[in-house]
From TrEMBL:
Listed cofactors: Mg(2+)
Protein's pathway: Glycan biosynthesis; trehalose biosynthesis
EC id: 3.1.3.12
Keyword Magnesium: yes
The protein's role, per its UniProt record: Removes the phosphate from trehalose 6-phosphate to produce free trehalose.
NCBIfam families linked: T6PP
Enzyme class: hydrolase
Gene3D superfamilies: HAD superfamily/HAD-like, Trehalose-6-phosphate phosphatase related protein, domain 2
GO molecular function annotations of the record: trehalose-phosphatase activity
Protein name in UniProt: Trehalose 6-phosphate phosphatase
Organism: Streptomyces vulcanius
Xref: InterPro entries: HAD-like_sf, HAD_sf, OTSB-like, Trehalose_PPase
Keywords from the UniProt entry: Hydrolase, Magnesium, Metal-binding
Length: 275
């Protein structure tokens, strides 16, 4: 298992190893548990993710996946609902940045009503994207958000930069926010982020230490939440699933691992050490 490069990270790892039954393991999905691919529908958890999680979950207080995806999409693409997910009864998936929730114990999804701004934005989006590179496309997210992807454009970063301003104006006019990610600009309701979701889940589970792993800008509120928990005396280990697309996350992390394969290796090692 890699060694955290910061004193706070080493303290948190020691706390996790000493008292795993009060540890919350919280993980992002895309880019952290699942390798990045061109088509979001094709994203699947790393093949070793499920075995690693089923080995680790019974040894800790709780495991949560906190994702921008609809909860049921993350559940399906991670393979959490199938027979291979034995031992994951303490697993919760917090979708749409924490606005939605799926619990392994019940298999049910709870969600607030859709924000009316999403339908309004959807009707204006085609005109705004008219004339864009044909590789720019819109992901529908169950009527609760829309994501404009530029990964397939001829010049992905230039398309992202050009669209950011107009999409922000559009979102603002309809009471939404823009969540920038890895070559994606998501228009979604305000009021929830991964930091709020993580703090709520720490309170709910009574966790006394936390590990959070993420790779993207949308994970930074969760990183800030862990930093706040540390100030309040709750040790937290910040893990970056490293990529060459986002540098802000590795700069804030205690431990940088090599993408989803590295995250899964860390989870597996943790499970082995706790045995
Ligand atoms: O919070 P996350 O689990 O990281 O989800 C955030 C967004 O991830 C998805 O997009 C990213 O992954 C795609 C599949 O690998 C990739 O094609 C895209 O470029 C990435 O940005 C997802 O499609 C979005 O809806 C999520 O908001």
């Amino acid at each position: 298992m890699g060694t955290p490069t910061t004193p706070a990270g080493r303290e948190a790892l020691d706390a996790i190893l000493a008292d795993p039954s009060h540890t919350l393991i919280a993980l992002d999905f895309d880019g952290t548990l699942a390798p990045i691919v061109e088509n979001p529908e094709d994203a699947r958890a790393h093949p070793d993710a499920l075995p690693a999680l089923t080995a680790l979950a019974p040894k800790v207080a709780a495991v949560a996946v906190i994702t921008g995806r609809p909860a049921e999409v993350a559940v399906r693409n991670a393979g959490f609902a199938g027979a291979g997910a034995k031992g994951l009864d303490h697993l919760t998936v917090l979708g749409h940045y924490g606005a939605e929730r799926w619990d392994a114990r019940t298999g049910a999804v709870t969600a607030p009503p859709p924000h009316p701004g999403i339908a309004a934005v959807r009707t204006e989006l085609s005109a705004l994207l008219d004339g864009q590179d044909p590789g720019v496309w819109v992901e529908e997210k169950g009527g609760r958000a829309v994501a404009v992807h530029t990964r397939r454009a001829t010049a992905p970063q230039a398309a992202f930069d050009a669209l950011r301003g107009p999409l922000t104006d559009l979102a603002t006019r309809h009471g939404l926010i823009v969540e920038p990610g890895r070559l994606v600009l998501e228009l979604r309701p305000p009021g929830m982020d991964k930091g709020v979701a993580l703090l709520d889940h720490v309170r709910e589970t009574g966790a006394r230490s936390v590990l959070y792993a993420g790779d993207d800008l949308g994970d930074l509120p969760a990183f800030a939440a862990v930093e706040k928990l540390r100030e309040d005396g709750v040790p937290g280990l910040l893990v970056c699933s490293g990529s060459n697309e986002v540098t802000e996350v590795s700069a804030r992390a205690d431990l940088v691992v090599d993408g989803p394969a590295g995250v899964v290796g860390l989870l597996r090692e943790l499970a082995a050490q706790l045995a």
